[in-house]
Design a protein that fits this description.
Layout: H1 12-20, H2 33-51, H3 53-75, H4 86-96, H5 102-105, E1 117-129, E2 134-145, E3 149-155, E4 160-168, E5 182-184, E6 186-192, E7 197-206, E8 211-221, E9 228-236, E10 239-247, E11 268-275, E12 280-283, E13 287-292, E14 299-303, E15 316-319, E16 322-327, E17 333-338, H6 340-344, H7 349-366, E18 374-380, E19 387-388, E20 393-397, H8 410-426, E21 433-435, H9 442-459, H10 465-482, H11 506-523, H12 525-539, E22 542-544, H13 546-559, H14 566-575, E23 580-586, E24 594-603, E25 620-627, E26 632-640, E27 644-652, E28 657-660, E29 669-672, H15 674-686, H16 693-708, H17 715-720, H18 730-747, H19 753-771, H20 789-805, H21 808-824, H22 834-844, H23 847-859, H24 863-873, H25 879-891, H26 897-909, H27 914-923, H28 925-932, H29 936-947, H30 953-966, H31 973-990, H32 992-1000
Parallel strand pairs: 1-11, 17-18, 18-20, 21-22, 23-29
Antiparallel strand pairs: 1-2, 2-8, 3-7, 4-5, 4-8, 6-7, 9-10, 10-15, 11-14, 12-15, 13-14, 16-17, 19-20, 23-24, 24-27, 25-26, 25-28
Helix pairs in contact: 1-4, 2-3, 7-8, 8-9, 9-10, 9-11, 10-11, 10-16, 10-18, 11-12, 12-13, 16-18, 18-20, 19-20, 21-22, 22-24, 23-24, 25-26, 26-27, 26-29, 29-31, 30-31
The protein binds zinc ion (ZN).
Length: about 1000
């Protein structure tokens, strides 16, 4: 899924289920620990029985119960031996309890499905009524009984269930009139809304190894709320049109039909859709048969049966879109469906083109064919996420898939590309092999996010995404979050349906990706690829947990004679929150020159108070280089397992610096003694190229964050970026600008702000003037695919820094562009910098410009342009206009629903709007929470965005008050916001003075 929020957990349920229902081809016999334990107790019991009769009796009673329990489950047919590891078996058994008292246990009261039945196939027939936005359905589920039970418990939410029947199939799943078959009498059936479940209680028990068929019919509404089977509208030739589409991940399939809505319950699906013939319908598989009714003229489309899959990536859509198509060399048909006007303008062609190349790329990389005969990409006007990877029918919000080459910037193109790369990766990681349970959602999201960079490098090798942009956009970004004490481990336990959205957070996506990248680098690409191939082949059409992955990767390493226990190493990183700061220093006890370094690891945390009682430790793959003004020598990998270690490396003297985490492949920060920082800074000033571009960006990010957390004096990062005039690469500039904007928001309301902005402008000026502005002559923007990405991005970065920190020439240029646009009514602003120019224009020019941009926002049809026009409106320093914008966003449908949050956040980034956004957010919380509450990611984005730059004692107090009065049920976003704002206030209290003091009188290098 293209974006979301999550914490760790012992993989109890997940792990067991995986083994339980792995495909029968993957037989992994295991003795379960629990059984062994029980047998030991038995033996012990009998031994004791010799001693005393009373004890014998007591023990016998206890053991007989245990024995029955054990024997019962063991004897359950259909288990085929490997029924799960001891851990999970235990927890499952405890939950369902013994058969005898199931009635009293009431399995529907447990948040997880009981596991006595397993769906094998669904026949699903849906009639869609677009005129009144309702649908009715019939589902027939073929069930295999694993443990005897009287209850069928499955998921259903907001469905009006009317008829229910259950039949037992004859031996071998034959029709019910065969021996042993027949109608099962239903005792009662009822919904259990607390767990979004539906219960069918039978008079008689269903028997293990037998097959049953559950038939249900139901009705429901096609809601206007982006979940389940929902509708949205768009206009075509000034006419309002509707479409209806599904979003089932993670737990909304149950809103469309009764089903076993947990990822482990894989089954095959045969879907039939019936609807008005003015619409077309799509689903995961191609249409197998289509017919028109003589009676009402309605069309019935029967889709081909799917392979085994989970409910959350089943999908269908009813719309009147058109498409363009292409075919891969291996015969897979790819179609892009969108509004007819978007299709005819060619806005879908780019995504179609890269999707074709990507299917080939992944087939080569994973050495596993794409599994379905076709892949449709559907561009919808409204969607709760950037995109959703439904197998064979992936759904994208228009802004993440439609590209108008004339007006789209390269960053828009890059973002769109990455979303497509991400969703296509999921066709393997997620759809073909699915995490056992949501606690390991990072197994699919971390991979898809990592492959965004690898796959984009395949499409555009010059972009160098995995070695460069990954650092700033993933690694640096997530270390900000994961350095908070309110963070959580990447694997986080969830049970209740309402908590599941929580696991889709940046920790799962970005930390997942960063850990996978670290591992890929430790293993080396060929072995990493080999391990992945083995993992996918072993678990295809099935589920897997993280231990399954670790074991395949370990096997790949062993095959080359490298003895690393990947599971043991990775558990430290996935089951513990946070990450370490590694401090490297030359060994002080020795005479110079020395060969020894001392390495120390500590849990990195922004809050100094939180660092007391730290006990976490990691297995760290550390690479170290030693260098001086003329040469650098990269050392081998050093594994750090202890808190403090000493290692021997190459010879060092007083002028030799140490550099850790080469190319920032590791997920940790590196600190040094002050003398070493000084040597590194000197190196950057005199000859930065000796240090790799990734490490230059890393030094900038580490130093700013170490200073922000109080591990380093405030002057160190400021002195370090003094080398920027020498910097010719995009990435270090990007790393610096991210850190500087962060500081900017902390400082923009302080009296001495000019000291800071002048310092930044001083670093930026020479490179900015040298790079200039992009030209916009004919031809230069014609093909952005060919543009030199690095140069364009650096130019853009410098213009943005210059304009936002107040470079006069930059301001004049932006104003000139806007004036030209207004007077000529021709937009000659290069697409790549339009957002900067619009925003600068709106902030500097009068109200007429705001109105002009507002008008353009309404008149443009290009989605990328619409988005930046809207954001530009938030740049005004006129609070009246900002207020008007906020009100219009929320209370009218002038602003697309998913963009409302961005409007509020952007107003909050504007120093003139900060109070306004903060006040507005609190006043409208009830409305916002009602609208975005269920898609928790949106809510947490909003909370984070509105609060992250609050930094006064007063604002902190207001935030605390807000949390107390209204913050119930907003998930982890509010505690996190509180910690961030506390950190901001603390920084002002402890470090601001030192920061400004350095700026007033920076010491010279030397
Ligand atoms: Zn995803």
């Amino acid at each position: 899924m293209g974006l979301n929020d999550s914490s760790p957990g012992a993989m109890r349920n997940g792990r067991g289920l995986s083994d339980q229902w792995a495909d029968s081809v993957v037989v992994r016999p295991r003795t379960t620990e629990r059984h062994i334990t029980v047998h030991k107790r038995l033996v012990l019991g009998f031994a004791l029985s010799i001693v005393t009769l009373i004890i014998v009796t007591a023990v016998a009673v206890v053991l007989s119960i245990r024995f029955e329990d054990c024997g019962d489950r063991r004897g359950a047919p259909g288990e085929a031996g490997p029924r799960g590891s001891g851990r999970s078996n235990g927890s499952r058994g405890d939950r369902t309890g013994d058969r005898g008292d199931e009635e009293s246990v009431q399995p529907w009261r447990n948040p997880r499905l009981p596991g006595s039945l397993r769906p094998r196939h669904y026949d699903l027939r849906i009639s869609v009524y677009m005129d009144n936005f309702t649908f009715s359905g019939e589902v027939s589920v073929e069930l295999e009984c694993l443990n005897a039970t009287r209850f069928i418990v499955l998921h259903a939410d907001r469905l009006e269930v009317d008829r229910v029947s259950v039949t037992a199939e004859g031996a071998g799943g034959r029709p019910a009139n065969r021996p042993g078959g027949g109608v099962m009498r239903i005792h009662r059936h009822f919904p259990f809304p607390a767990n979004q479940m539906y219960v069918v209680a039978l008079h008689r028990e269903m028997k293990p190894m037998r097959v049953y068929r559950l038939n249900m019919s139901f009705d429901a509404a096609i809601e206007d709320e982006l979940l389940g089977f929902f509708r949205s509208a768009y206009s075509l030739h000034r006419e309002r049109r509707f479409l209806a589409v599904t979003q089932f991940s993670p737990i909304h399939a149950r809103k469309a039909f009764p089903c076993f809505d947990e990822p482990i319950y894989k089954a095959t699906f045969s879907l039939t859709l019936r609807h008005d013939p003015q619409y077309i319908s799509l689903s995961n598989m191609p249409v197998e048969a289509s017919s028109l009714s003589d009676e009402d003229g309605w069309v019935t489309n029967r889709f081909a049966r799917t392979p085994r899959m989970s409910t959350y990536y089943l999908a269908w859509a009813v719309c009147n879109f058109t498409y363009r198509e292409t075919q891969t060399d291996s015969g897979v048909t790819i179609r892009l469906y969108a509004r007819p006007d978007a299709i005819s303008s060619g806005a879908g062609d780019y995504a179609l083109h890269i999707t074709k190349r990507l299917l080939g790329f992944y087939e080569d990389y994973f050495k596993v064919q794409y599994s379905l005969p076709k892949l449709d990409l559907l561009a919808v006007p409204k969607h709760p996420y950037a995109a959703m990877e439904n197998w064979g029918l992936s759904v994208f919000v228009e802004q993440k898939i439609l590209l108008d080459a004339e007006v789209s910037s390269s960053s828009y193109q890059m973002e769109l590309t990455m979303v497509v790369v991400h969703e296509i990766c999921h066709q393997w990681f997620g759809d073909l092999v699915t995490p056992v349970w949501w606690e390991d959602v990072w197994l699919k999201e971390g991979f898809a996010h990592f492959f965004e960079y690898v796959g984009t490098d395949f499409l555009f090798p010059k972009w160098n995404m995995e070695k460069q942009r990954f650092l700033t956009d993933v690694l640096h970004e997530v270390m900000l979050l994961d350095g908070l004490s309110s963070s959580h481990p990447i694997s986080q336990e969830v049970e209740r349906a309402t908590d599941i959205d929580r696991v889709f957070d940046w920790i799962a996506y970005k930390k997942g990706a960063a850990l996978i990248r670290m591992l890929a680098n430790v293993m080396g690409q060929p072995l990493f690829q080999k391990g992945l191939n083995d993992y996918l082949l072993s678990h295809m059409y099935s589920n897997a947990a993280r231990d399954d992955l670790w074991s395949k990767l370990s096997q790949a390493m062993h095959s080359e004679g490298r003895d690393i226990n990947i599971g043991e190493m990775m558990d430290r990183w996935t089951l513990q929150m946070g990450y370490p700061v590694v401090t490297i220093s030359k060994n002080q006890s020795e005479q110079r020159p020395t060969h020894y370094i001392t390495i120390n690891q500590k849990h990195f945390l922004y809050g100094e108070e939180a660092r007391k009682n730290l006990s976490l430790q990691w297995q760290i793959p550390l690479t170290v280089a030693v260098g001086n003004q003329s040469s650098v020598c990269v050392e081998q990998l050093i594994w750090i397992n202890n808190r403090t270690e000493t290692h021997r490396i190459g010879q060092m003297d007083d002028d030799t610096w140490l550099l850790g985490n080469i190319n920032q492949t590791g997920y940790f920060r590196v600190n040094y003694d002050l003398q070493n920082w000084k040597l590194l800074i000197q190196q950057l000033h005199s000859n930065p190229q000796i240090i790799s571009v990734g490490n230059r960006a890393g030094l900038i990010d580490d130093s700013f964050n170490l200073a922000r957390a109080g591990y380093l004096p405030q002057g160190v990062p400021l002195q370090l970026i003094g080398y920027l005039p020498e910097e010719t690469s995009f990435l270090p500039w990007h790393s610096a600008s991210r850190a500087l904007y962060q500081l900017d928001k902390l400082l923009d309301r302080t009296d001495e702000y000019r000291l800071f902005s002048d310092y930044v402008l001083k670093q930026v000026a020479s490179r900015y003037h040298q790079m200039g502005w992009p030209s916009n002559g004919p031809g230069t923007e014609g093909n952005i695919l060919q543009a030199s990405y690095q140069t364009e991005e650096l130019q853009r970065e410098l213009i943005m820094l210059a304009c936002s920190f107040g470079n006069k020439q930059c301001h004049r240029q932006a104003v000139a562009y806007i004036s030209d646009w207004i007077s000529s009514n021709k937009n000659r602003i290069p697409p790549n910098i339009r957002d900067i120019v619009y925003c600068t224009g709106v902030s500097l020019m009068d109200e007429d410009v705001w109105e002009f941009i507002w008008m353009k926002f309404h008149s443009t049809n290009a989605v990328s342009e619409k988005k930046i026009l809207l954001e530009a409106l938030t740049c005004s320093d006129n609070t009246f206009l900002l207020n008007r914008l906020l009100n219009l966003s929320l209370s009218s449908d002038l602003v697309p629903e998913q963009d409302v949050i961005d409007v509020i956040i952007h107003v909050g980034r504007n120093p003139q709007g900060r109070n306004l956004a903060w006040k507005y957010f609190r006043e409208k919380w009830d409305i916002l929470n009602a609208r975005y509450g269920e898609a928790l990611f949106m809510n947490s984005k909003l909370i984070g965005g509105v609060t992250e730059f609050l930094n006064t004692e007063k604002e902190l107090y207001e935030l605390k008050e807000f949390i107390q009065s209204s913050g119930v049920g907003a998930g982890p976003a509010l505690p996190r916001a509180l910690e961030i704002v506390e950190g901001n206030v603390r920084w002002h209290r402890l470090h601001r003075r030192q920061f400004y003091q350095w700026l007033r009188k920076p010491p010279s290098l030397g």
